[in-house]
Amino acid sequence: MAAVKARLASGNPHKLEELRAALPGWAIELLETDRGYPPEAGADYYENARGKAAFGRHSADPDEWVLGEDSGIEAAALGGAPGTASARWADDGVARLLEELEGVAERGARYVCELVALGPDGEERRGTGILEGAIGLERRGDEGFGYDPVFVPLGEQRTVAELGNDWKRANSHRTRAAAALRAALS
Ligand code: ITT
Predict the structure, then answer these.
(1) What pLDDT is stored for residue 1 in this prediction?
(2) What pLDDT does residue 40 have?
(3) pLDDT score for 87
């Protein structure tokens, strides 16, 4: 079967790499745009993900699908912050998270990913993925990106950055969102 041609409306190459692994049978490229992305103005991950995909729809070829992805980390002790603001919460989000949770016993947290696909005929499908875990006491590991050096998935002792990219490709919130999206498309 021919690959599904798709553009990912994102400036984050880690997302591209992880989604390529999570969506076999899809030929995904980053959307090239010189228009600059509009600010994330949505009320939640879904609205932001849909906004990115809708923006990309204007530049993508008519026969391509467009993917928009919005994700973030939510710390229970911070009432779910930084959530949708994860990318712009601080210059160094990991440092701020460790600082805000210093001396705090409640370390529970989760990663959330919302994926929206807009098809050539305007059809829309979505998938949500969640990875539960906890915030460690210090940075450990060097794979992945973002908050991975301090995020310890439920049932694991090591951070995602220590568990590595192969672990992430099999288990991440992004991989789960992609599986949900595939189910919604089938
Ligand atoms: P685009 O909006 O261009 O797609 P972005 O990196 O700005 O790229 P988001 O607005 O969705 O993406 O912000 C997601 C942030 O949440 C990301 O920058 C990280 O700080 C954090 N995050 C999401 N998924 C993550 C993951 O798998 N590992 C580590 N941090 C993650």
Answers:
(1) 73
(2) 74
(3) 95
Tell me how far the alpha carbon of residue 2 lies from the centroid of ligand 1, in angstroms. Answer: 30
Shortest-distance atom of ligand 1 to CA 144? 28
Is the beta carbon of 72 within 6 A of some atom in ligand 1? yes
pTM above 0.85, yes or no: yes
What would the two tokens of residue 53 be? 């995909």
Query: Between 25 and 42, where is the model more confident?
Result: 25
Q: Which residues does 93 contact at the CB level (< 8 Å), separation at least 6?
A: 82, 86, 87, 146, 147
Q: 53 near 42, Cβ under 8 Å?
A: no
Nearest to 74 by CA among 151, 174, 145: 151
Q: How far is the CA of 48 from the centre of ligand 1 (A)?
A: 12
Residues 161-185, mean pLDDT to the nearest whole number? 97
Q: Residue 29: what pLDDT?
A: 96
